[in-house]
Amino acid sequence: MKLSGQFKLMIAGAASTALAASALAFAAPGAAQAASHGAAARPHVAAARVATACPSGATCSYTGTNLTGTAGPVYGNNTNDYQYYTWSHAESVVNNGTQCTDWLYQNEGYGGADFYLYLGYEAPTLSGTVYWHHLESNHWCNPG
Question: What pTM does this model have?
Fold first, then answer.
């Protein structure tokens, strides 16, 4: 079956519109991130709302939701954040770094499910996810 030029143009236009819409869906800041290591539920992530106790250049986990409780800063790539009380009891987390996105992992050594936080973004609660009291490693700027 031979298609007319006008019909071909309609198909191509619809395909490019669908492609553009799907690209926008993935680019929306603050949306739940896609898993690269598993299909676990992801925490809601949003731009940080207020100044935090987290020092500049660090990602901080907190022992309470909404960035409350004790802040536990880490710098650089870490294969064992679980050794720190605030990471083994994490209920919320913020990326207060100065350069890039931070990937956070359920298990030590960049293992298990992961999600990422854009620079200046927070996950106000890890409740209902595998990360509740289980942030065990982190890797800056690209997946570990």
Answer: 0.69
